[in-house]
């Protein structure tokens, strides 16, 4: 046995492990996360900014259109300026319907021009009209183009000016098999109005 007075001195505690590497590792992780966030923001911010700008411009255009006057007599250019116009408004149609617009005949594929500046609200299809384009113009009037063969390079929410090409004459929808034409209608507060008196008339090219 070892006498109490001869006990060996206690072993010193090991020095604390250096924290330098631990702190360095945390710093590197934070730096990596920060760099990743900066990279993501750099990639996304331009598109977010562009979307916001487009939204603001579209809303301003809509408000501007609503404050403008509705079309008046002989104020609108024809969607097919080189063609004769006939007033087919109110003519009898299938299923007891009446014609809510006018038909303007032209060769298949003839470019159709917007009659007014406005915002494209629809580029798509329905049962009666086939391929259709709808544009909201001054005063909130809806301008409806139907029986298209094909669309021009436009999409919903696009801005168009009067005279811009929006599609091409065809016979889609319930006009299949009839002479190619565009059905043009105008709707004010959801009610169809006769577009014929509002369109400018011109002699066809000789």
What does this structure look like?
The protein is an alpha+beta fold and 206 residues long. The chain folds into two domains: 17-67; 94-198, Distorted Sandwich (Glucose Permease (Domain IIA)), CATH 2.70.70. 23% of the residues lie in helices and 25% in strands. It has one helix spanning 20-67; strands spanning 102-105, 111-113, 118-126, 130-136, 142-151, 159-160, 165-169, 181-188, 191-193. Strands 1, 2, 3, 4, 5, 6, 7, 8 and 9 form a nine-stranded antiparallel sheet that branches. The termini are far apart. The mean pLDDT is 85.
Q: How far is the N terminus from the C terminus? A: 132 Å
Tally of strands: 9
**Helix segment tally:** 1
Strand coverage percent: 15-25%
Radius of gyration: 35 Å
What structural class do you assign from the helix and strand content?
alpha+beta
CATH superfamily of the largest domain: Glucose Permease (Domain IIA)
Order of helices and strands: HEEEEEEEEE
**Do you know the CATH topology of the largest domain?**
Glucose Permease (Domain IIA)
State the gist of this model.
By secondary structure, the chain is α+β, with helices and mostly antiparallel strands. It has one helix at residues 20-67, and strands at 102-105, 111-113, 118-126, 130-136, 142-151, 159-160, 165-169, 181-188, 191-193. The radius of gyration is 35 Å and the shape is elongated.
